Each structure stands twice: as structure tokens, then as C-alpha cells.
Amino acid sequence: MSPLPPISRREALRLLGAGAATLALADLAGCDRGGARQPNIVVILTDDVRHDAMGCAGDKRLETPNLDRLAAEGVRFPNAFVTTSLCSPSRASLLTGCYAHKHGVRDNFSRDPEQACPTFAEVLQKAGYETGYIGKWHMLQSGTPRAGFDHWVSFTGQGEYFRNTLNVDGKWNLVINYVTDELTDHAVRFIERERTKPFMLVLGHKAAHAPFVPAQRHAQRYAGVDFTPRGGPDGAGLSAKPDWGGRDAGALTPEDLRNYHRCLLSVDESVGRLMETLKKRSLLDDTLIIYTSDNGLMLGEHGGLRDKRAAYEPSIRVPMLVRHPKLAPRGKVNEEMVLGIDLLPALCEAAGVPAPAGVQGRSWLPVLKGSKGRDDFLYEYFREEGPVPTCLAVRSREWKLITFPEDPTLPAELYDLRSDPAENTNLAGRPEHAAVQQQLSARLAALLQETGYRRPTA
Fold it and tell me: CA–CA separation, 441 vs 409, rounded Å?
């Protein structure tokens, strides 16, 4: 056998560097699955689910053992937010890493993101992932397959809790099963496929969107439990707040509130089934699992409001759980702020691929390891149906300023979140808070400029 030709010191260092990079990526993934050294990814996306709608968030009345397990084995972000609290714009932001004013989905009136803002599915598919979307899409009102997904199961619009016509890879099928269970069945089958490359799956649940219809097996759970929000503004505080929906239409009943939480029982069971399937396939510790929602929901706060859209905390805060033994410390509560638009860059970093140019979010992978997060962010909502006007807000670690640029007759709202986390007392216009209001106004203007905000013309 002829001896190997000698190599230069520079070439040896180059080869060693390439090997180190390969080993680093293998360590991130956790194991070598047939040559694929990138982690699998499962994103569980719920609908209208509040940040506190799970037992691990502190409400011991809630029966969410699988979500609690996910939090215990990973990281919970109690300060996770969306940048537009409305289904379609928020889902587009999660997928593209961009604000609504950039990706173009500003309302629920049937539009997919602009092609200039690719989804993380398109990016990961090009990087070698097998990709799947199962569940509610809700943007362009069509259940047909979308670019970037190898496997597709969806329905048109909101869908129903029972009896849906599903589009499965281009073919329509009528199913009568409870929707959470049906979608989970499809997700389990996708995970169980034999493959030689990593996969990325988004499971988009309909739950817990109104009207709240739980699975029959859960119809009597929480019987007698009172989920009515405690506390609230006094008469003076409430009189200073506009009615952004709910008070005039009638409050949610105690049974409505119980049914909302009953819908989430099947979601919790779904999470358990997915984790058990991954475990049986020896993939659990090699899969990055993210649980979150497209927006929160007010369930009677602020004098009886029962919507989202407005920039109040119950609307804009969402659950956020992350599990991956190599990435997420076990059982940690991370207080840093993370956003829906941060999902795409985080998934790209985990997969070892660059995020598309123009992405406006930031990866939270360094935050998982202890790095400092953002100090504030821009919230935007563009008026469509309902009473909530267009609003622009800045939410910092300690303060929130809400403005209404299209209606100068509406007063701004300013809240000290340290002493008033329920946002009961509007401090805007008070002389003693003029300086902080001016600072936040300047920061809001800066955020609009930084993100390339343009007032929509249509």
C-alpha cells in the first residue's frame, strides 16, 4: 500500500476545524441518526391559550400533567409574548420571524405571508429536513398544501371541534373525530415514519378557540371549579378604560370558563402522546420540542373583556415551553422576554443553518444558556373586525405604553408593571410620570424605525 501523501500544517488545521464543527453539531443533536446530525423539531402551536393556562404556571386547579412534565424537563418562559395578538398575523410572524407590517398578514382576512419572508419550513426543508404541517393554518382561507412542507394535513379557516374536511397531501377527507385527537393521530403517524434525515413538525391545534367545545370524555371535569378572574380595577380605574369588547356583549359564564380549560385537557393529552411516541422511537432526547400559542386571551379581566387584540398582558403573553437536553437546562424558569418572531431564528440556529436575511427576531438559544434577553419590544395591531382600534405599544421589562395612532381622541395608556401587573391604573398624563412616558414614547418611535414600520395604506 502506498503511503498517504503528506499534508501541510494549514491543511491539517483546516481539517481539524471542520471535524470540530461537525462534532459540535453532533453534540447539539445528541446522536447520529443515519448521518443526520441536526435535531428533530416539534412545534406544538395552540390557539388563544393564555400564558397561565397550565399547572406549572402556578394555577394548581389545572390538570396538565404532560405540560408540567415538559416544563420540568426543560425551560419555561413566563415572559413570552406575541407581537400581534391575533391568529393570522401572529401565526405568520411565528413562521417568518417578521413583524406583521413586514410579512403583510395584518388581519384575519385571507392572506399568506409575502414571498420575501420565507417560513422556517422552507429554510429547514432546503437544509435537508423532512417537514410536516398538521392542523390549523388560518391565514389564506384554503386548506391546500403550502410551500416548504413535505407532508400536509389541514382544513379551511377555523375548522370545527367535531366533523372536519381535512386536506391530506392534496386530497380531501371527511372526519368526524374530535379535532385535537384527529390531528394528534396524524402527528403520531408522521413521527413514526422510517426516515434517514431529521424531521420538523408543526402541530397546530384548534383548541382552545371559542366557542369552547371540549371532548366528551372531559365534559364533566372541573365541575364546580370557579375560573372567574380575581381582582380587577376599581370603579375609577375601569371608567378610564375603553370597552374593547366583552362588557356590552355579556360576560363569559362560569361554564364557558370551565369549557375553555376543558378544551386544554385534550391538548395536554396530545403533548403526552407525542412525547411517548418520541420516547418509543428513541428520539425524545434528540428532539427540540416547543409548546406555545398564537396569542393569549382575556377571560373577563379589565371589567369583563373577553377578546385578544388589545395590548393588555392576558392577550399578548403566551405559554412557552422548550425541551431539549443539550439546549435547555432541566426544570428552569427563565424570566427573560422572548417573542413569537424569535422562533424562526432559534430553529435555524438549532439546525445549524443561517436565518434568512431580513428576519426581525432573535434566537433564544443563547438565552436558554443564560445570556441576557431583550429589554423591550414593539407590539402592533391593525384594526379589522371588532372594536379594538389600531394600536402601537412598547412593552419593557417594567413599563408599558399603549398608543392609538389613528384616533387622536383616544388617550394613551401607561402602566407600571412592577407595582400594577394587572394594569388596573392608567398613569398616562400624570405629571409625576411625564418623564417615563416621554422616554417610552421616544423608544416606541425608535422601535418603529428599527423595524421598518410603515403605516398600511390598504
Answer: 17
Q: How far apart are alpha carbons 102 and 405 in whole angstroms? A: 18
CATH 3.40.720.10, applies to 32-374: yes
CB within 8 Å of 133: residues ≥ 6 apart: 121, 146, 149, 151, 152, 153, 154, 201, 202, 204
What residue segments make up the domains of the chain, in order of their start?
32-374
SS3 for 16-59 is HHHHHHHHHHHHHHCCCECCECCCEEEEEEECCCCCCCCHHHCC
pTM comes to 0.91
All residues at 6 or more sequence positions from 136 whose CB lies less than 8 Å from its CB, including other chains: 47, 154, 155, 158, 159, 204, 205, 206
- DSSP per-residue letters across 94-136: HHHSS-HHHHS--SSSS-PPPTTS--HHHHHHHTT-EEEEEE-
Instruction: Give the rounded distance of the alpha carbon of 355 from its chain centre.
Output: 18
| Average pLDDT score, the chain | 90
> Which candidate, 194, 204, 21, places its Cα nearest to that of 121?
204
Q: What is the pLDDT of residues 258-271, one digit of tens each?
A: 999 999 999 999 99
- Please report the pLDDT score of residue 107 as a whole number: 92
